[in-house]
Amino acid sequence: MSASNEYTPSTATGRIANFVDSRVGASGIIKEFGRKIFPDHWSFMFGEVAMYTFVLLLLSGTFLTFFFDPSMAHVVYDGSYVPMKGLGMSTAMASTMDISFDVRGGLFMRQVHHWSALLFVASLSVHMLRVFFTGAFRRPRELNWVVGGVLLIMGMAAGFTGYSLPDDLLSGNGLRIIDGVMKALPIVGTYLSMFFFGGEFPGEHVIQRLYSLHIMIVPAVIILLIVIHLFMVVTHKHTQYPGPGRTNDNVVGFPVGPVYAAKAGGFFFIVFGIVALIAGLFQINPIWNYGPYDPSPVSAGTQPDWYIGFVDGALRLMPGVLGNFSFEWNIPFPWGTNTLVLSVLLPALVPAGAIFAVMFAWPWIERWVTKDNREHHLLDRPRNAPFRTAMGMAGVTLYSVMWAAASSDLIATHFHVALNDVTYWLRALFFLGPIFAFWLTRRICLSLQRKDREIVLHGREAGIIQMSPEGAFTEKHEEIDVYKRYLLTNFVDRQYIPAEPDAAGHISGSEKRRAMISKFFFEDRVAPVTPSELEAAHAAHGHHEVEGDKADSIEK
Amino acid sequence: MGDHSHGSPENSGTVAKADDVAQDRFPDPGLPPHRPRLADRDPRAAKRHERQVALLFTISIIGTLFFFVAYFVLGHLGEMTFAELRVQNAALGLGTGFAMLGIGVGVVHWAKTLMPDHELMEMRHEISSEADRQDAVEIVDTIVEESGIKRRPLIRNTLIGAIALAPIPAVFMFRDLDRTGKNAHQMIDQMRHTMWDKGIRLTRDPSGTPIKASDVQIGSAFHVVPEGIEETENPLNEKAKAVVLLMRMDPAEMQISEGREDWNVDGIVAYSKICTHVGCPIALYEQHTHHLLCPCHQSTFDLTQECKVVFGPAGHALPQLPITVDADGYLVAQSDFHEPVGPAYWERG
């Protein structure tokens, strides 16, 4: 770059901008992002909530590390909380008590941290559901879907490692359950437990180890994944909901500067403010009520943080013995008898494993069944993908049944029903609930689609009642405008694709299976209204009066 | 829905069958016309929004000031009661909450009412073009070719072997995560033993006072630890295995299996308190039904049937501790448990 044609700024701002730009190339970044278009929709905010609560976690967590001591060395409590004075506890517990009672604002920061953690995993989960139900995971975003799923798992890992740090009675019993689940793993389980706890449970090492994981490796991985996630969002550009003017080739929305930046930036402060209000007004994890960890006592109604609940619930649902048959199998080997603890292994690993496996594989499953390998930047309205919405609801139901089971004792005491009955019902729902949810959701979706058809074909109800010369009352219908009509008729009309032979004329087994699933998913379907159908409807009834002899329903 | 009837499913005219092909579609009418907001037309409305935004920012400033009041005036270290702490905590939350919400709501309100609300359109671009992909493939081919890795399988195979082996030490590095220095056999073996032994007195938890057989009434339950547990090297580890529930019931109601006839003292029985499911302490004793219930996952054990599992996820009965009385009338253990306590594991057998 020669000096002669260098840009000379005239204002102070210009000079600073020029200084930065000529050293780091900022104008390229501003050119790329300054007016980049982001589509606007309330459901796109869940991901933002997740990111902002993570920022809050970093801020409040850093504050807490300045005062927390993860040692398990035994001390006698001598802080400001009188009822616990003189009680023996670990240093970790004592320093958590000090943060709560002897550091000004410490309790507030602890509560901000805990509430943010709960909200972080919750918003991640809801964001994943939004992406699933709108089909945003489809090509080219499959890998970002996987990154999101790993983020969810890491969020749960971060929550779990942090939950145990205060070394209070509640979290100690949580660790004990983890110890029991670890020991159930065949062959390696016992050693894993010894390595994890540095010997037998509870030992004197586990809190320090969880602390290292909680403040170093887990957040580092989360930050890395968030960076990858956002990088891919920029590469792909954001998806958008369908509607007039929105196509698969464009992005309609607001520019980053100023509108989107203001809304998204302002939203950070809103999230912060709401978390601060919750943390100020609602108590969470009052360790001074639980007391220090002791292997003997346990409080009734114990529960983990919400996101671990589904695994805990699965543990509760599994019967350990049926009649005289025990799910702990003692298997005789030449070297002695070993125990396969199916009563713990099955519920701890299988449901969670199945949910995450299907979740991660879903973009590829859907691509395989629908043979749709196109890029999709326009989202589906959930009703317009009945099979997917139904599958998602089946998964949500399975998860919810397990989650409810984690509160089986509280359900029993609050609703005055027998605990055993609650468990029996939930066991039945575990198997039947998802099937029912699939069926019901698909029926609802198809009905909503039919309603859309009806609105397009017959118009909306005008609220005007007319009386005919014969004395019959009818309601006047008004035709909807072209924008609404386009929204209701423009969607991907997925159809059953029968098994197709390959080049050699042979139909493979996997192709037959694909066709079976395709038939199951798509044999019931509601097609969008076409212009000729609308034409026919108008011709049959005149423009505004509709008395249908013409059906608009669909069955197989 | 209106006044029109629906056709029957069998002869529905507009039903799309799976083999139908949808061809005709409605054309895209383009973006709907922009509707101006009040503030776009009326300068007074714009001015009003401006004042609202400024008010919200002022609320934020007040919130921040309130935080300092909460921090310095309400909070005085050391001598706070719990109630005062709660008030301070709520005040800190309110101060911070309003400080942040004032900014956030203000900025969003500003963006929604005063910044342009015209939606703009941008075209998407191909994520990676065919030409780029071909160039990339060519470059990779060149790199592979120049490195010679295909032509020299000896180098390639030894490299794969070396890379496969190299991480294994990193796994073995973690062997000493177990800080007890025990070998594999000892690690497994220690799980079969607790500190209970012949003649060790049963004492109350946490007071540590020994228990006379005559103190134990029918229907009562004691939380019990071995005498001298506080003097051990790691009391929590010992307690995690040795903690016991002591109850008395009518001997006529007990089903006693062979070999356990003398494990109780006149209907006083001792069972491990550690659930055989995943190890929670079993804290609830229902004296009418003689059921023991684990509050974590609701495993239920029947005391009359030697703590057999009657409900819930536990897979085997609670281990029984054989007890007797010593010369002074105190309850003592006859021996250790005859099987490992707590959750099942691979080597349990």
Show the helix and strand layout.
The complex is a heterodimer of chains A (556) and B (349).
Chain A: H1 12-24, H2 26-33, E1 37-38, H3 45-65, E2 74-76, E3 88-90, H4 91-101, H5 106-133, H6 142-163, H7 169-184, H8 189-197, H9 206-236, E4 250-255, H10 256-281, H11 287-290, H12 309-317, E5 321-322, E6 325-326, E7 328-333, E8 336-341, H13 342-370, H14 386-405, H15 408-415, H16 419-458, E9 460-467, E10 473-478, H17 482-489, H18 509-522, H19 531-541
Antiparallel strand pairs in A: 1-4, 2-3, 5-6, 7-8, 9-10
Helix pairs in contact in A: 3-5, 3-10, 4-5, 5-6, 5-10, 6-9, 6-13, 7-8, 12-13, 12-14, 14-16
Chain B: H1 38-41, H2 43-74, H3 82-113, E1 120-123, H4 130-147, H5 153-165, H6 168-172, H7 184-189, E2 202-204, E3 221-226, H8 235-242, E4 244-248, E5 268-272, E6 284-286, E7 291-293, E8 300-302, E9 308-311, E10 320-321, E11 323-325, E12 331-333
Antiparallel strand pairs in B: 2-3, 3-4, 4-5, 5-10, 6-7, 7-8, 8-9, 11-12
Helix pairs in contact in B: 2-3
Describe the main β-sheet of chain B briefly: 5 strands, antiparallel
- What is the string of SSEs of chain B from the N terminus onward? HHHEHHHHEEHEEEEEEEEE
Biggest sheet record of chain A: 2 strands, antiparallel
The geometry of chain A reads as globular
Percent range of helical residues of chain B: 25-40%
Q: Characterize the overall form of chain B.
A: extended
String of helices and strands of chain A: HHEHEEHHHHHHEHHHEEEEHHHHEEHHH
Structural class of chain B: alpha+beta
Cα Rg of chain B: 38 Å
Strand content of chain A: 5-15%
- Rg of chain A, Cα atoms, Å: 29 Å
Q: Tally the beta strands of chain A.
A: 10
* Uncertain regions spanning at least 5 consecutive residues of chain B: 1-22
Oligomer: heterodimer
Structural class of chain A: mainly alpha
Query: Of all protein chain pairs, which has the greatest interface, and how many residues does each chain bring to it?
Result: A-B, 153 and 123 residues
